[in-house]
Amino acid sequence: MNLLSSSATWAQEEHHMFADSVKRFYQDELSPNIDRWVENGIVDREFWNKAGEAGLMGGAIAEEYGGSGGGLGFDSIALYEQSAKGDSSWGYGIQSIVVHYIVAYGTPEQKERWLPKLVSGEMVAAIAMTEPGCGSDLQAVQTTAVKDGNQYRINGSKIFITNGQMADLVIVVAKTDKSEGAKGVSLIAVETDGAEGYTRGRNLDKLGLKGNDTSELFFEDVKVPMTNLLGTEEGQGFYQLMKQLPWERLLIGITALGSIDYAISETVRYTQDRKAFGQRVMDFQNTRFKLAECKTKAEVLRSFVNDCIARLEAGKLDAATASMAKYWGSQTQNEIMNECLQLHGGYGYMNEFPIARLYADARVQMIYGGSNEIMKELIARSIDV
Ligand SMILES: Cc1cc2nc3c(=O)[nH]c(=O)nc-3n(C[C@H](O)[C@H](O)[C@H](O)COP(=O)(O)OP(=O)(O)OC[C@H]3O[C@@H](n4cnc5c(N)ncnc54)[C@H](O)[C@@H]3O)c2cc1C
Prior knowledge:
It contains 11 helices and 9 strands. The chain has 385 residues and is an alpha+beta fold. The chain folds into 3 domains: 111 residues, Butyryl-Coa Dehydrogenase, subunit A, domain 1; 110 residues, Butyryl-CoA Dehydrogenase, subunit A, domain 2 (Beta Barrel), CATH 2.40.110; 146 residues, Butyryl-CoA Dehydrogenase, subunit A, domain 3, CATH 1.20.140. Helix 7 packs antiparallel against helix 10 and helix 8 packs antiparallel against helix 9. Flavin-adenine dinucleotide (FAD) binds next to strand 1, strand 3 and helix 11.
């Protein structure tokens, strides 16, 4: 299956060419490593550099910063193809999110300093919003960034941070004005190499996404130059976060579709091979009907996701529609993983079968990037105007 089906009206010839080269790259460099990354709890650092060399991470970045000057359709392809290979370990989604914060809000100096390294894989990025005491309610962040001469002093702790173990650049959501709610929030970049007072907690033990590192991060009087404020004005952080959310949410819908396509193909293969009562499991009407339902849901999601990518490329993807892609995509993913696992019988529950991992990986898609309850709140706001 492909993202670039007939519903991908946004896709040009260069997108198809990019998809082919991404597939080849993943086939050679990603697929052989998936099991080992899951076992190690983290991807190889060199994989980031290889992906950079292959031009995977710069599709949507201007040429002057080392990219190829396209739009987010390129990142959509890279993310879809990764999950369609059954991988959930490589944290490219977060890298893409951070890169587009810098593209949207970075000063020319910040873009020059960070974008080329993020495109080449020399730098790995993380975004640190969530804290032990707050996730959905981001206005309540406790981390502070206090001015001290021409520096900020950052204090606080963050939790559940994807890419936290190896991030070289962390965008920290912090209060520059504690007396304000949303208006007191700013985004500040921390270059972690040699940053005094910055520590990583352990790589957290999760239900799924076993090869994708997730960490607590601690900031104790971490000093960064004031020029690390993203943009030029304090108190813009909440607005900046809200503006970028459509991409963060859509990309969860895109990866949901990739995983679904992979799960269906694995399940078709398994049920064609497996025999019960003297016939292939595929030949039971229940199996055929269940797979027909899964396929239908996948095609409906594909059309919607492609419509959202087209809107995003045209600068017209609104928050409510992106929230639908995240909510619907992740919920559909969970429903389909459940059905596909069931069709594997007991083997589906064994970790050596990919469907067991896909089932566990799917669960968090309904939680992170804004929980599905928050998505419904946002969608409801667009109804009750
Ligand atoms: C594997 C993983 C990776 C992650 N990666 C990152 C990352 O890279 N960076 C980062 O900053 N964060 C990351 N997160 C954090 C994630 O975004 C948060 O867990 C998520 O936003 C939910 O916040 P919370 O855990 O504090 O739950 P809470 O906000 O405490 O929510 C608990 C429950 O209450 C519900 N709830 C809360 N508010 C409302 C409301 N207004 N109406 C109805 N229901 C509500 C929620 O939906 C949820 O069911 C990650 C999380 C995980 C598990």
